[in-house]
TrEMBL record:
Signal sequence region: none
Gene3D superfamilies attached to this UniProt entry: 3.60.21.10
Species this chain originates from: Desulfocapsa sulfexigens (strain DSM 10523 / SB164P1)
Family listed: Belongs to the metallophosphoesterase superfamily. YfcE family.
Record field: transmembrane: none
Matching Pfam families: Metallophos_2 (PF12850)
PANTHER family in the cross-refs: VACUOLAR SORTING PROTEIN VPS29
Enzyme Commission (EC) number: 3.1.4.-
UniProt keyword Cell membrane, yes or no: no
Protein name per its UniProtKB record: Phosphoesterase
Needed co-factor(s): a divalent metal cation
Alphabetically ordered keywords of this record: Metal-binding
Length: 239
């Protein structure tokens, strides 16, 4: 038997990540997996990456992390173009500690791990494209096509900020939702617990409240765009 905590799309929201850690403080996990987008859109990048590294979380990079890596290596990017978004990227890159920068630069775009005789693959978007959005209502034919692209029977993904567990062609597709940036009008953090007992694969999803006021005060302190205060309060994507 294995019990694994699934995270994704933390987006530097350490107060939400810390709330999840507190919620599960009495639970023993065999591993913690994170499907990327650990950075950008909140002012706690160093705390977030330190927690991931300290807790030996098996992580990959997402699209926001990839752009931060570009900035750290002297490159730039075209998208996003909106000023308030670009501010969050440049602020993050400029405020990373050397240790945090080294950590994010060390991560890969995908991971494959063996747990209880199951092959588990971590992707940010999908096995085909790190920027692909998968939802519960995505065409089953698309899931079927994706199931043939990697040698795993459990595919973990993020990016869409939407929690789901679907089984197609005996392949499990699981998205734990977003820890740190919510789009469904519920500001609570999302995560999941994956339990594997022999051939049985099950997932339990959780929504966990976190101290939003701590986020608001930090955004104000660092003079970051006001729109993010509204987004975290409402649990919506406003830009």
């Amino acid at each position: 038997m294995a019990k694994i905590l699934l995270l994704s799309d933390i987006h530097a929201n350490f107060p939400a990540l810390e709330a999840i850690a507190l919620f599960f403080s009495g639970t023993r996990f065999d591993a913690i997996f994170n499907c990327g987008d650990s950075l950008v859109y909140a002012p706690f990048p160093n705390e977030t990456l330190d927690w991931l590294e300290t807790n030996d979380v098996q992580s990959i990079v997402g699209n926001t992390d990839w752009k931060i890596r570009k900035l750290l290596t002297g490159k730039t990017f075209k998208k996003p173009r909106k000023t308030e978004k670009r501010i969050m990227y440049t602020w993050t890159a400029e405020h990373l500690t050397p240790a945090a920068a080294k950590y994010i630069l060390s991560l890969k775009r995908t991971r494959q791990l063996t747990v209880e005789n199951h092959e588990i693959c971590l992707f940010h978007g999908s096995p085909d494209n790190p920027n692909e959005f998968l939802f519960p209502e995505t065409d089953p034919a698309r899931f079927s096509a994706l199931s043939k692209l990697c040698p795993c029977d459990i595919i973990l993904c993020g990016h869409s900020h939407t929690a789901f567990h679907k089984r197609v062609n005996n392949i499990h597709f699981i998205n734990p939702g977003s820890v740190g940036r919510m789009f469904d009008s519920n500001p609570a953090a999302s995560c999941a617990v994956l339990t594997i007992i022999g051939e049985t694969v099950s997932t339990r999803f959780h929504r966990i409240s976190w101290p939003i006021e701590q986020m608001i005060q930090a955004l104000k302190k660092h003079k970051l765009p006001d729109i993010y205060q509204s987004m975290y309060t409402l649990g919506k994507k406003l830009n």
